[in-house]
Amino acid sequence: MLTPDGARLIARAAEALAAGDELGVGARLRAAGAPPELVAAAFTQAELRHRAMAAFGRAGEMLFTRAGLEQSTAEAAARHRAARFAGFGRVADLCTGIGGDLLALAAAGPGLLAIDRDPAHLRIAVHNARVYAPEARIDARCADVRDVDLAEVDAVFVDPARRADGRRLAAGACEPPLAWCFALTERVAAVAVKAAPGLPTELVPPGWEIEFVAEGRDLKEAALFSPALAAGAPRRATVLLGGAEDAVATLAGYPDPDPASRGGAAAGPGAGGGRGVQGRRPGRARGRGDGGRGDGGRGDGGSGDGGGAAEAQAPGGSARPVGEPAAYLYDPSPAVTRAGLVGELGRRLDAWQIDPWIAFLTSDRPVETPFARLLRVEASLPFDVRRLAALLRPMGIGALELRRRGLAGDVDTLRRRLLPARRDLVPGGPAITVIMTRHRDRPWALVCVAQDGGPGEVTDPA
What we know:
VC0802-like, seven-stranded mixed sheet, 20 strands, 3 domains, alpha/beta, Rossmann fold, disordered C terminus
């Protein structure tokens, strides 16, 4: 596949796939003398390149394996992470795979040591890195990463395997083990480890930074940075925004305290609001406590509106208010919730939680943010299927999305009870999102409209 003949076969295969003529073109290529195994490999590469286009801007010039593509880092995430290695001389990429991170490190300019025990993956990785950085200095070695001398390396990135025999390993399990990866700091101070997003955070040593990365609403991965690479805050939530510049948004701070430490989460009774929104704004913290170094803010007592809120102290004195559902609801990115930064996001949005155990935030005014989906609340009420159905059916709904968080129940069954048939949907009608959750430890429902006006769908993200 690395020869000119191989490249021509892949190009023919790609044309055949686009035209839907794989069988015909494959037969003609074999009849013309192309070895059957090369024809099959060419069609595999063409298919994988097509699949990889969403992750790599130059996928049409790269090579892949199925397993390697499934476990590779997308280009935008790799570039974001590679920025941490700016200023380091020689960087080792351990467990290189097909080179998703190697190509970003190569484009950043340092000398590279690439290690993988799969010779095919290693050769593919070097090819892919040179697609992006033709002059990259890459010392590629086929070896077990545990046997490599790192004496002349300034920084290390390691992406341990999280699959074995085609199956995903349990959260926190990998090969080499995480304990080995963390122990690399005994030889090289600057170490970054790619991990599964479901990683139990208690496995990470003190002083290491944990970053969770999402693309849209899809949580992709975690990255762990040793103290020498940490950027100040112990947790980060990063959202890949896409676009030509691979834009990203990052929220950094201290993880939220355990809700059990709140010392009472119930807010005072609300005053009742317009458009079916119950309650008004609770007391909010004075002082945001940037990065956990705040001034020990306190609540202002609800400004006399009867909607007082309980608060919990985060490290550094920041407060986490809890109060009544208001006019707008924020559904944080899974990167934010996984990083434990819902409280930090709430402080930046001037918003509060509706329940200490639930990640939704609410506020009286809308603030666009890349870290949460913004919804306008049309109605807020105790959860009752019959009351919800009576509320929804006259609304002329065009699309219905159900989101369940903190409540048990089958979404499909609930949807049938709310709108028995899809014929009940009205073309061109509003896209409604029904949030089934908890408020003050009570089952609660919020009927919402997305601020972007996008279509809804029936989902069960819980």
